[in-house]
Amino acid sequence: MKEILLAFFGSLSLAITFNVGRNRFVWAGLSGAVGWIAYSWLYEITGQVIVSTFVGAVCVGLYSEIAARCLKCPATVFSISGIFPLVPGIGAYQTVEYIVGNELAQSASKGIETLASAGCIALGIMLMSAVFRVMKNVKKGRKAT
């Protein structure tokens, strides 16, 4: 529960920093909490960081697209603050730490995991954005017919 609250407040603070609007602060904070819940739940089951990060990012993307339509604002308001808890900062730090300690095999492993996690975040957000864009075009095409 503590981690979920920290994810919420981390995303909330980023929303405050980017001045997204007072009526959207809580929703932006929930975006980070949703992503962290999905990440931590799947990480408990699988123990794999990359898959868990991807699912967390997909959940943030899905939440962002739905919240954007409900609150009539851009989805990036929620997706940027929502991915904040998922960003693999500790992985990047550990990669550099292993390099400095001359543990090159561990640094390569942690570096690849960090880059893959970052790529999964981008892929998850883009996937949900593309799905909603296709659904919008299909809906628009049905109205025109």
TrEMBL record:
It comes from the Bacteria. GO terms for biological process: succinate transport. It holds the Pfam family ThrE_2. Residues 4-130 form the Threonine/Serine exporter ThrE domain. The keyword Plastid does not apply. The chain crosses the membrane at residues 41-63, 75-95, 115-135. The keyword Nucleus does not apply. GO terms for cellular component: plasma membrane. It is found in: Cell membrane. Its main location: membrane. InterPro entries: ThrE_2, ThrE_Dicarb/AminoAcid_Exp. Belongs to the ThrE exporter (TC 2.A.79) family. This is Threonine/Serine exporter ThrE domain-containing protein. It comes from Clostridium thermosuccinogenes.
